[in-house]
Write a structure and sequence with these properties.
about 150 residues, alpha+beta, 5 helices, 6 strands, elongated
């Protein structure tokens, strides 16, 4: 299954999956950096689709990704968003990251944070704009933490 077929399949698969739950919407789909972006418009079921701590969103992504994988699709990485939830969350995390970085710069004390993978990526990206700050992750699975540190002056 080539890239275009992968996008069409992922879109239809998610639409069919949602229709099983009585959610009949048109999914907007694009591809960005070899990740299929599937955007579900706002419905009365947003909170169900997102779930606690976005667990339902991640489950939807996993299901679509596994369906693509089982069909030997060229692209199997999928990002599902509902009513721009992830984009808005990323903006909030980026703003919070600025505060955390200011705190680390002011105190020179490292900061350890329990964040999910997508939130860690946002903080890593924000931290790239600061030459005196570095970030890295430690641990495995759910115990993985992000560390923000001030780089000592030589």
């Amino acid at each position: 299954m080539n890239k275009d077929e992968s996008i069409r399949f992922a879109t239809k698969y998610l639409e069919d999956l949602l229709s099983f739950f009585g959610i009949n919407v048109a999914i907007d789909s694009t591809i960005d950096d070899e990740v299929i972006q599937l955007s579900i418009p706002s419905t009365s079921m947003n909170s169900l689709l997102i779930g606690k701590e976005a667990n339902n969103l991640r489950a939807l992504q996993h299901i679509v990704s596994m369906a693509l994988s089982s069909r030997k699709a060229e692209v199997i990485r999928v990002n599902v968003d509902v009513a721009d939830y992830k984009r808005q969350r990323a903006e909030r995390i980026a703003d919070q990251a600025e505060d955390w970085i200011r705190e680390v710069r002011a105190t020179s004390q490292s900061k350890r944070l329990n964040l999910n993978a997508s939130d860690r990526r946002v903080v890593h990206k924000v931290a790239q704009d600061y030459s005196d700050i570095k970030t890295h992750s430690e641990g495995e699975g759910r115990d993985r933490q992000l560390i923000i540190e001030k780089i000592p002056l030589d």
